[in-house]
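Memo to structure team: turn this sequence into C-alpha cells by end of day. - J.P.
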Amino acid sequence: MRKRIITFLLLVCMSSMYSQQEYSILKISPELLENADAVVRKMHTKLVVEDIDKVVVHTTRIVTVFNENGEYFIDAYQHYDEGDGIAKQQAIIIDAMGNEVEKFRKKDFSDVSAFGSGTLFADNRVSYMDYNARNYPYTVIYTSEFENEDTVFLDQWFPLEGYNVSIEESIFELENPDAHALRFQENNFDKVAIEDHSVENHFLYKLRNVKARKHEDFEPSLRSTTPNLLFSLEKFELKGVAGETRDWKHFGKWMYDNLVAEHDHLPESTIKKIVDLTSSASSIEDKARLIYQYVQENTRYISVQYGIGGWEPETAMNVDRLGYGDCKGLTNYTKALLKSQGIESYYTVIYGGDSKRHINPDFTIMQGNHVILNIPSEDSTDLWLECTSQTTPFNYMGDFTDDRYALRVTEEGGEIIRTRKYEVSDNVQAIECEIQLDEKGNFDAEFTRISEGIPYGDRYGLKRETEDDLKKYYRNEWGRLQNLHFEDIAFEDDRVDIQFQEKLKFSGSRLASPAGERLLVPLNFIQQGNIMKKTSQERTMPFVFERGKTYKDHFSFKIPQGYEIEALPGSDEIASEFGEFSINISASEENKSIEVERVLIIHEGEWPSEQFQNFTQFIDKVNTLNNLKAVIAKSEKS
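Reply from structure team:
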C-alpha cells in the first residue's frame, strides 16, 4: 500500500514538473520575444452563470516576465467585496527552465483594502501575490476560483493587454446553463484572427500568438482599437438589489430609484443659509455659481466606497453634517442645495481622465469611474459642475471630463448625453513678451501668457506652488534659456471668464550668439506647441489629436544701443489638414526692435498611418520656421 502511495505521489510530482517545464522560456516562439517585457503564455477566464445573483469565475493565468517592466502584467490578484468568496487561489513561481522556485497558497496571499489612505470607508478588498523577484526571467502560474454575487459586473475580455507584451494564448469562456437572458458585444474583432467556438449557451473565444508592439506617438487608446468582448446579464443583482440592463433608460431608472432617490434631504438651517446666500442673485446661473462656491468653501473630498457596492452616494444630510464626501456624495449634496432653490440638476456618471473614454452608448452595463453634475439649459449650453474640486472654476470641465458620452440619471430613467467640447478656438495660449537684448547677447524679459480652455486647466494650479517650485518649473519649461534669474512672478486667475494669466520678469544670458561684430538673434524666444519628438517614420497605427489647440506669440526684441538690424528672414505660412502655422517678422525703426508674430494651430482629428509622414513633414516645416534667426550689427555711427 505504501509503495502505491509513493508511486502515485511521484507520478503527480513528475506530471506537475512536466507541465511546469512546458512553460520554460525555450518554448516561446522567437517572434514573440521581440519588444516583449512579458509574454502571456496562457490567460483563460471562465465564467459560469449559476443564477442572476451568482457567477463563478475560474482564472488560469501564466505569464513569463523578462524585466521589471514586465511585472506589470503578472496580475496575480483577485478583487472582492465582503459577501463574495475566493474559493481557491494559488500561484507558482518557476524559473527560466520551468523549475519551481516558490509556491503561494491561498493563505500566503496578502489581503488589503483595494483603496488607498485617502479612502475613509471601503468594502472592496484585494488578495494579491507579493513576490520580490531575485532573477529574470521567471514565470508565474496563477489560478483562482471566485464566487461573485454582484452580477452587474461580469468579467470582460481584452486579450491584447498592453504595449510590450506578447500573447501566446488568451481564452474567454462563458457558460450559461440555465439560459439566463444576456447580451454581448464584439468590438474590433476584425483587427486580429479570433477563433469563435461558441455554441448555444456556451461562449468560447480564443486568440493565439500575437506579437508585442511598441507604443506609437499620438496613437488612439488600446481600448478603442483592439478587440474586446462585453457581456451583461439583462437581470442582475448588486448587493442584493435586483435590476435590469436591457437599455439605458431602464438602467438609469434603477440607478435613480436605488442610488439617488431620497438622498437629497437637507437641514432647515442649511436651506436658510442658501436662501440668504442667493437672495440677490438674478438668474439660475448666478444662484448656481454661489451655491457651487459654497460647496467648495465648506466641504472637502474624501473617498468613501461603501453602500450598494460603492456606487451609492452619501446622503446630503450626512455630507452637510460631516463636511466631506467623494464625487458621488459631493455631487448629490450640490444637487440637493440647488433643488432647495428650485434649480433642476442631474447626477451624471462619466469616465474621468485626460483621454476621452466614453460611456458606451450602444451597450448598457455598469460603467464609469466618476460623477459630475449637469444643469440643463434650453439653449443646449448646459452647465457642468465638478463638485469634488475646491479649486476648479464654476462650469469648467477641462480635459478630465470634456467631450465624451455620459449617463445622466433622472427620475424618468437614464439618458446618454455628451459633455461640453472645447473647440480649437477655445483652447488658446497667447504670449506677449518684450525682450531687451544687450551687446553680449544677454537679455531682460517681461512676459505675459494668457491660457484659456483646456490650457487653463494645465496652468491655474501654478498659483498654489511655492516660489522655489515655480522657478524650477519655468527653468524646466524653458530649458534652452540659460542662467535664468527671476525678478518677479505673478498670476491673475479670472474664474468667471476662465482665463489664467502669468506675468514674469526675468533675465538670462547668451540668448543671441556673437559672430564677429554681429549678433545672431533666435526669433523663437519661447517655444509653444512643441508636440513632435524625434520619432521613426515607420508607422502601423492611426494617429489622433483629441483636442485642437491654438498658440499665439508676439515677441518684441529690443536691440542694444549702438546696434542696427542688418538682416531679417522673410515671413511665411504653412497650411495643411493637420494645422496651420504663420510667422510674420518685421522691423520697427521707431522702437528699434524686431517684431515677431507667430500663430500655430493644431486641428483635432484622426488620420490613418499612411498620413503620418505628411504630418511629420508639416511639423518639420514648422520647426524650420521656428529656428529662424535675425542678424543685428554694430551701427557705423556708434
